[in-house]
Specification:
With 405 residues, the protein is of the alpha+beta class. Helices cover 38% and strands 12% of the residues.
């Protein structure tokens, strides 16, 4: 005997309507919307949980269970993401070439390290544009010898950015020695970690040999004391004088100058607090970051610096503000810096040479080396000691007078 589809009452044979609830027994159930290929199916298990059966893109049949359909879909999504991640990671056992391990080295040792963004970007560029496309990149790790490395480094060419194609193209000019050394450092790191992971037994990248000339300390370039005095005099009368006076009287890095806020300048105490730098962002452009040493520091405000700062119009949050409570760009600062030197009798040097000048003059005036390290924000005092080697004819002339009897 048939039962009502709604109230489950016994029906008279051939009845079209239920005599209890009136339900039309001839009505067909509505068709559910068809699922797309790959959507899978859901059904309720005896314990009340939902089971989701699906055929994945690779043909694998998989079942996911959860309290709701939503939870099943979430589990499926996580599973598929993990499968993609596993595919993107090169298995160490499958790595045979320098190019393969270079990718793994960057991902595991460099990408999430504490290195500055600029250093990471350079390493990535050297790997993608120089190492991987080269003959050495296609060689198996154990087969590489020092002769291959030396030949590769000697053949390196300078790359130039093409604005139209937004790519780098190689030129006929040989790569600079400093850039070659950076490539050497990257290669050495690649092979050192390969040895640690039993992918090869020796490092074919030997440390760069230091010649007699190279072993001498490289002295920082700077303005001479007469040039410094001349620059200060000219800057006091020039429209853009503060663009030279601030670096000369603070020794700040350009990124720190751009991040300088009015709120961090205490004119009463005569101190400037340095906590940030306007540095390159990993996704392009600039962003506010900590200082290079990641430590705050203070700098004294002398009379010339105070006078220069007080003349700067306060149009925003920053000393060098673009009018929108953001620092001006390094290129804008550079143009104003250049405009000053167009009217100066002193030959132009970079803003960083102002930092060298500040440090050298501070030492000549008797500043303690440890104090100067704190003012400059050097992590290692050996960097500060580099300025103790600087001397000019004025220092040498008359320096033996104290030996006269």
């Amino acid at each position: 005997m048939k039962c009502c589809k709604k109230c489950n009452a016994n029906l008279v044979s051939g009845a079209v309507f239920c005599h209890i609830c009136g339900k039309d027994q001839t009505q067909k159930p509505k068709n559910k919307a068809k699922r797309k290929n790959g959507d899978g199916s859901f059904y309720t298990r005896p314990d009340g949980t939902i089971s989701h059966n699906v055929t994945l893109k690779n043909g694998q049949r998989k079942t996911f269970t959860g309290k709701t359909e939503k939870e099943c879909r979430q589990k499926r999504t996580r599973f598929e993401e993990n499968q993609l991640l596993k595919k993107s990671i090169v298995k160490i056992d499958s790595i045979v070439t320098v190019a393969d391990w270079a990718d793994r080295w960057y991902e595991d040792y460099i990408k999430d390290s504490k290195l500055a963004y600029g250093s990471k970007r350079n390493y990535f560029g050297y790997i993608e544009n120089d190492i991987k496309p080269s003959d050495i990149g296609q060689m198996e790790l154990p087969d590489v010898r020092p002769v291959h490395v030396d030949g590769f480094l000697n053949r390196l060419k300078t790359r130039k950015y093409d604005k139209k194609t937004k790519t780098y193209r190689k030129t006929s000019a040989p790569m600079s020695e400093s850039a070659k050394n950076s490539v050497r450092v990257a290669l050495r790191g690649i092979f050192e970690t390969a040895i640690e992971n039993n992918l090869c037994e020796m490092n074919p990248v030997k440390p760069k040999k230091r010649t007699a000339a190279a072993s001498k300390p490289k002295l920082p370039q700077m303005f001479s004391l007469p040039e410094f005095t001349k620059l200060v005099e000219e800057a006091k009368k020039h429209k853009y004088g503060h663009f030279i006076l601030v670096p000369l009287h603070t020794g700040l890095r350009l990124a720190e100058i751009l991040a300088l806020e009015w709120a961090l300048i205490d004119f009463e105490e005569g101190l400037i607090t340095i906590i940030n730098s306007w540095a390159r962002a990993e996704n392009g452009g600039r962003e506010m970051k900590g200082t290079k040493s990641e430590k705050p520091r203070k700098i004294d405000i002398n009379d010339d610096l105070r006078e220069a700062l007080e003349k700067i119009p306060k149009i925003g949050r920053y000393v060098f503000d673009n009018g929108k409570d953001k620092p001006i760009s390094p290129s804008t600062y550079g143009r104003r810096f250049d405009d000053f030197f167009k009217d100066s009798e002193v030959d132009k040097k970079t803003t960083h040479k102002c930092r060298h000048t500040f440090a050298t003059i501070m030492l000549k005036k008797g500043t303690n080396l440890r104090l100067l390290q704190l003012i400059l924000g050097h992590s290692n005092i050996s960097t500060t000691e580099g300025y103790t080697h600087i001397g000019d004819d004025d220092d040498i002339r008359g320096s033996t007078a104290k030996l006269a009897v």
